[in-house]
Task: inverse folding
């Protein structure tokens, strides 16, 4: 037996017709009436004997979902009992057919074709789209197939929608299942076929991206959801199981969009309460991402702020700040500033994104909001404000360390704010010249943050590496920067702007050790990440650019080094109280001066007149004899000869000849 189960628009009938064209057996298309007692006897009596004689037959029941379930079950089971070898029964349906599929599977008597088998590939979809009048590049076709999940009818309707848009690429990114062509199709072909209680359940639980009995019970505030889900899964293959036990499900993405639109149309007053209950359930079950997301969808700044503030350190130090920025975009600027925990979380997120101005605005708002509306149940709000004050305060770097130090003293060992406070404290000690104390504090910060705040660990290691470079301890610097790079790679932080300092320290260290290819890669990464950070903390920008400038010098990119040093100098002037920058600048400019002097000397700098004199130096002729042959004065020859000595780094005529020979300036 063959069973084809898929929603409307997946080409079930087309598949059966194409099969019939390529199969030598006779295809007999059954109607529901044919499965009644009298009709069934006629088929058994008239058709099956011929099949038994060797001709073979395929009995097809298309759109079985339209027939009475009991009739289908009885009639098909009777046919399966009577049908001879070489013949078969094929059934297509939008719902699970009322047949003993489990028994048929176990007996290896069942062929199943389902949604995943009928979904179009990008190559197939591109043909359909062209026939619908829409030409897309293959990358866009792939994106559309992902969005529609290969649903043929959805691809066609999407082509109609996109074809009417002047900006097809932009419209493709905005395509949703609530677009009127898709929504009408879903209402006509899917929702209209569902029982009213199933429709109501599907619409109200559309706030969830993953459905299970317990979470649906919580969102709807009533029991019985597991049975409803089972019924829905039988009624519509658009509800996809996510686990072998079929206890967790998700809707086809476009259909979920349509259900959400139906909820907003029919019961807009319920949307917030449904999301609120979902948020509470996910919080209780240890899923902060979904808890925060549903609080944002409920447009609840208090709940979202409390949840987000409790986990903001983890989000911004584990490479997930883009997700936080998406959540924050769900609130207005006034809403962000109006509740202290939300404002504080926003301040840290914007700082990590490189928007220091917005971070400072929200930090001030958070401090003010604490007095207006104290937040209950949010741990370490004061510590979070102290960290922002240390990072963005108008005071000098020494005071930054004092503020961060006090935050460390107030917080317990397991506080999420402790690693970043230690980083700021250690950086302050470094900037003010106390290298020993700085290394001790940075080591503690690196160890504490390794699991919970890997981005902070990479920063602590990079800062300690900069100290090692200052002390010319290149082995320690290499060890620290390699550790920092390992942390970045292990936690997927390579594209995270906060890690610019770690790439800068790694670039400088690797360039010094002659690891040119690796150094160039880190140099590019550091510069790109600094660009993303934009207007960031001045001392951070100065440190990173100084390290990148030194890497550029060791990689012989003097122009790039000059640009970086100029930017670093501007930022260093804005860092009050720092004492480490001047030696770094002095070293860099001295190195460039030495390069400039070298460029004025060396074999390549010899003039034509000096090269002419050089040809005579291997001989035993005196300067006077050389002058006579060249028709110049002896003093001219002497001056030019001494210039040759200087440019070749030679102390005598014989040494000049040797160096010129080594440089290939004299024939053998």
Result:
């Amino acid at each position: 037996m063959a069973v084809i189960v898929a929603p409307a628009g997946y080409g079930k009938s087309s598949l059966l017709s194409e099969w019939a064209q390529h199969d030598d057996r006779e295809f007999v298309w059954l109607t529901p009436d044919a499965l009644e007692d009298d009709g069934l006897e006629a088929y058994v009596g008239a058709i099956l004997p011929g099949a038994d004689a060797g001709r073979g037959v395929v009995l097809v029941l298309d759109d079985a979902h339209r027939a009475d379930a009991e009739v289908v079950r009885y009639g098909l089971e009777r046919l399966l009992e009577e049908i001879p070898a070489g013949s078969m029964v094929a059934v297509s349906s939008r719902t699970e057919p009322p047949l003993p599929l489990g028994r048929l599977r176990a007996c290896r008597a069942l062929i199943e074709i389902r949604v995943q088998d009928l979904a179009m590939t990008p190559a197939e979809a591109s043909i359909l789209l062209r026939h619908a009048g829409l030409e897309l590049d293959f990358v866009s076709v792939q994106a559309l197939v992902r969005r529609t999940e290969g649903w043929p009818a959805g691809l066609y309707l999407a082509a109609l929608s996109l074809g009417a848009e002047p900006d097809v690429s932009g419209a493709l990114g905005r395509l949703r299942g609530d677009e009127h062509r898709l929504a009408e199709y879903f209402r006509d072909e899917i929702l209209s076929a569902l029982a009213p209680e199933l429709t109501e359940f599907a619409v109200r639980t559309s706030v969830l991206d993953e459905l299970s009995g317990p979470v649906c019970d919580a969102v709807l505030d009533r029991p019985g959801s597991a049975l409803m889900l089972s019924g829905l899964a039988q009624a519509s293959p658009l509800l996809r199981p996510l686990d072998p036990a079929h206890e967790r499900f998700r809707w086809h993405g476009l259909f979920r969009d349509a259900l959400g639109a139906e909820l907003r149309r029919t019961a807009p007053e319920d949307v917030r309460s449904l999301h609120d209950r979902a948020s509470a359930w996910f919080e209780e079950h240890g899923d902060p991402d979904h808890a925060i997301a549903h609080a944002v969808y409920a447009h609840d700044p208090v709940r979202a702020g409390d949840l987000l503030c409790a986990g903001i350190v983890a989000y911004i130090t584990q490479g997930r700040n883009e997700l936080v920025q998406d959540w924050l975009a769900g609130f207005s600027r006034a809403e962000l500033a109006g509740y202290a925990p939300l404002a504080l979380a926003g301040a840290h997120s914007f700082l990590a994104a490189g928007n220091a101005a917005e971070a400072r605005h929200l930090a001030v708002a958070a401090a003010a909001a604490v007095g207006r509306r104290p937040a209950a149940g949010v741990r370490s709000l004061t510590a979070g404000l102290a960290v922002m004050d240390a990072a963005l305060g108008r005071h000098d770097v020494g005071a930054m360390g004092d503020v961060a130090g006090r935050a460390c003293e107030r917080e317990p060992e397991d506080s999420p704010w402790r690693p970043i406070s230690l980083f700021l404290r250690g950086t302050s000690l470094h900037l003010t010249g106390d290298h020993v104390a700085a290394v001790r504090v940075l080591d503690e910060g690196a160890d504490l943050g390794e699991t919970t705040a890997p981005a902070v660990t990479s920063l602590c290691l990079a800062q300690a590496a900069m100290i090692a470079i200052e002390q010319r301890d290149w082995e320690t610097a290499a060890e620290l920067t390699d550790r920092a790079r390992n942390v970045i790679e292990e936690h997927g932080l390579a594209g995270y702007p906060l890690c610019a300092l770690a790439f800068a320290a790694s670039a400088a260290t690797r360039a010094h050790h002659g690891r040119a290819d690796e150094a160039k890669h880190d140099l590019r990464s550091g510069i790109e990440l600094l660009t993303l950070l934009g207007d960031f903390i001045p001392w951070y920008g100065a440190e990173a650019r100084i390290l990148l400038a030194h890497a550029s010098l060791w990689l012989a990119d003097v122009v790039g080094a000059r640009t970086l040093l100029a930017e670093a100098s501007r930022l260093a002037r804005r860092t009050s109280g720092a004492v480490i920058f001047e030696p770094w600048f002095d070293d860099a400019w001295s190195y460039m001066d030495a390069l400039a002097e070298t460029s004025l000397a060396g074999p390549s700098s010899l003039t034509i007149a000096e090269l002419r004199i050089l040809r005579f130096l291997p001989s035993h002729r005196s300067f006077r004899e050389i002058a006579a042959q060249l028709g110049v004065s002896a003093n001219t020859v002497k001056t030019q000869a001494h210039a040759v000595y200087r440019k070749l780094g030679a102390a005598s005529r014989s040494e000049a000849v040797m160096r010129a020979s080594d440089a290939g300036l004299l024939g053998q």
Q: What stands out?
A: The CA atoms of residues 200 and 527 lie 54 Å apart. The first strand starts at residue 2 and ends at 5. The chain is about 65% helix and 5% strand.
